[in-house]
């Protein structure tokens, strides 16, 4: 059973990203789970500030700006936050821990295809990305053996990592009528439990939805225009 750690404050740390980034969401969710008070700053990806480009070797987000250091890559940031307090958000079993890490890496594949589906400018592009997403979902579906979360009763980093994908799958169903998630019962059950998690609700909510809709409109999304 997950135990809420005592409040930890990173007074000199700032998590930098943009509002709808699925990669920053995982770090924010882990911070909520570990009761870490973490400041977040959103930037315009089309006009990245010079100060950020100076500290980030890749220029990508998210990045965690510390007093005397800069940590980048979302999974690394999530693990850094996890290790600030006891009761790790990784399974105790060593093999299961590294299986989780393997499938955490795979999450980027789903994120890529899902984003392609959402911003596709025509039906052909939408269908191609949707098909690729379904194929990736089939691979993770067959690995899910537990409920309500990926490893069972306890919420782990892998759940935080997949939360943005699961949330968007449900959002796409509710707003646009695309029932892809219904084709994968294990993922659907996982999504239901994960989306209902307080830490996930704190990050992925109506404010996020509104920002995402604006982004899709700017991208001339076929999904948005045909809903």
UniProtKB/TrEMBL annotation:
Question: Domain named GST C-terminal: which ranges?
Answer: 93-212
Domain (GST N-terminal): residue spans on this chain: 11-89
- The species this protein was found in: hydrothermal vent metagenome
Among InterPro entries, the record links this protein to: Glutathione-S-Trfase_C-like, Glutathione-S-Trfase_C_sf, Glutathione_S-Trfase, Glutathione_S-Trfase_N, GST_Omega/HSP26, Thioredoxin-like_sf
The record, for Pfam families, names: GST_C_2, GST_N_2
Q: What is this protein called?
A: Glutathione S-transferase
GO CC annotation, single: cytoplasm
UniProt xrefs under CDD domains: GST_C_family
């Amino acid at each position: 059973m997950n135990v809420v750690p005592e409040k930890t404050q990173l007074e000199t740390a700032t998590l930098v990203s943009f509002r709808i980034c699925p990669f920053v969401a995982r770090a924010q969710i882990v911070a909520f789970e570990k009761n870490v008070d973490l400041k977040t700053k959103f930037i315009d990806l089309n006009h990245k500030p010079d100060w950020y480009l100076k500290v980030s070797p890749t220029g990508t987000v998210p990045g965690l700006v510390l007093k005397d250091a800069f940590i980048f890559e979302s999974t690394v940031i999530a693990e850094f936050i996890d290790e600030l307090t006891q009761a790790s958000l990784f399974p105790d079993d060593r093999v299961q821990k590294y299986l989780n890490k393997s499938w955490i890496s795979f999450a980027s594949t789903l994120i890529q295809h899902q984003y392609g589906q959402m911003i596709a400018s025509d039906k052909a592009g939408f269908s191609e990305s949707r098909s690729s997403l379904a194929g990736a979902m089939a691979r993770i579906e067959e690995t899910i053996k537990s409920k309500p979360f990926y490893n069972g009763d306890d919420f782990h980093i892998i759940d935080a990592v997949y939360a943005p994908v699961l949330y968007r799958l449900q959002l796409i169903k509710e707003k646009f009528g695309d029932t892809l998630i219904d084709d994968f019962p294990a993922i659907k059950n996982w999504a239901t439990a994960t989306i209902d998690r307080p830490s996930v609700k704190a990050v992925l909510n109506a404010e996020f939805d509104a920002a995402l809709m604006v982004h899709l409109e700017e991208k001339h999304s076929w999904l948005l225009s045909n809903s």
